[in-house]
Amino acid sequence: MSDFVELDGVSLKYSEDPSSLALYKTSFTVPRGEFVAVVGPSGCGKSTLMKVVTGLWPATAGSIKVDGQAVERPLNFVGMAFQNASLLPWRTALDNVMLPLEVAEPHASRLKAERAAYEQKARALLALVGLKGFEGRYPWELSGGMQQRTQICRALIHEPSLLMLDEPFGALDMFTREELWLSMQDLWMARRPTVILVTHDLREAAFLSDRVLVMSARPGRIILDRRVGTPRPRRLESAYSADTVALIAELREHIHAARTRAA
Amino acid sequence: MQPAPEPPEQFDLPARVRRKRFLERAPVRRSLPWLVVIGMFVFWELFVRAFSIEQFILPAPSAIFAALWQWRGLILENSWQTLMTTLVGFALAIVVGGLGGIALGSSALVYESFYPALIGFNSVPKVAVIPILIIWFGIGTVPAIITAFLLAFFPILVNVATGIATVEPELRDVLRALGASRRQVIMKVGLPRSMPYFFASLKIAMTVAFVGSIVAETVAANKGIGYLMLVASSRFEVPLAFAGLIVTGIMGVAMYAISAGIERRMTGWATRSADMSLPTS
What we know:
The structure holds 2 protein chains of 2 kinds.
Chain A: E1 3-13, E2 21-31, E3 35-39, H1 46-53, E4 61-66, E5 69-70, E6 79-81, H2 93-103, H3 107-110, H4 115-128, H5 144-156, E7 162-166, H6 174-191, E8 194-198, H7 202-208, E9 211-215, E10 222-227, H8 242-262
Parallel strand pairs in A: 3-8, 3-9, 6-7, 7-8
Antiparallel strand pairs in A: 1-2, 1-4, 4-5, 9-10
Helix pairs in contact in A: 2-4, 2-5, 7-8
Chain B: H1 15-24, H2 26-50, H3 61-70, H4 72-106, H5 108-123, H6 130-137, H7 141-165, H8 169-176, H9 182-220, H10 225-234, H11 238-266
């Protein structure tokens, strides 16, 4: 497998102030089609990592390559989802999911001619995450979990080769979260995009990803790169298996060490 | 598992709940504003009669409505003039305030450069500008239009700018990571998002536009409700002056209602009521 995302010695300072150093000489690679989770103590620069990889913030030093190309401006094909669903309240669930198609090429120029086909696709995607029958509902008519599902559909509708998830399940209750883990796994296995998931939830990282990267306290660096061996498709029980519990304990130890070192 | 008991087809409401319902009935609620206005006039009439107040100090509503009827042609003609003046000034304010708001809201640089000057400009009492407008444009409709515009554009501008400038950063990131241009972010998110702010500002702008045109008419016009009121009071036709005030009030309420109606149609999503939402599952 070729490397899809490559970071080499990436540092980022938001301003001249040295305390604004969010990343320091971070290096890692993600092969095409891999699901990687990034965990770490809070404020360690996980969200900064998202911005750097997608080119939304320029790195202060080091090189970033996505799909073999140096990232010098915002990429134009990435699917993103955040902790807040941030849906457009004046659009129905279906129209929210369609939003990327109005912006991202080549879909934007085809949308007018092939609207029906695209709409069919959006409906199918919504049905896949259990939102059949809710296409015409507005965001305020949907529960938090439904809004989050809609957001994930929005991130996936244009079949991105790179998916960046910033704690998309963070604000949900445990049962909804576990349900969405399963949906997420299905969606990922169907298309195999490269995924970078930033999360606080170690169990989520262990359940969903092929590899877990642990970041140090700010300024963030990768201090552990751990492969997750659980075979796919994973069942929810695997999130509570002895192997996973051991892995979580190991991750927790590293994060704890990183926090105390920083303090 | 036991099946959940079916709710009964009908059940009696307790008396306490039923009593409350009277004031909550739609026809009752709709008539309340009218009752307030009528009550105010009745009180006014009784007050004037009880204290035998002279007509040239405070005319009774009966005298005002009599004057309204007597001078109906004159009043209609002059209110039409005022309405048109106000609407032209208001339309200009929408265009300038809207475009200015988009410019201010979408660029931090433009915002920082222009905002202090705009605040200063808005702090200038517009009445003080009217004499200058007379020097430039002479007595007539133009100073009134410009005064209405000057008062009305600022709230529109500030509100549109706020709506656009407060787009959630996550949403902006979602679109930018799809290759969206700054213009696309404004068109897809910023503008629709600023619509509730825009319509809220229209209601304010509409009423201050009336204030502007009428104030200008009292100083620098030979037509319009403001001019009519000035002439009427100089001739001690105080009921006619009050009739002018009432007509102004009616026009203000009517235009407000139109703005509010458009607002409800365009941005119902922002003022959704609780009964429209689903119980969360």
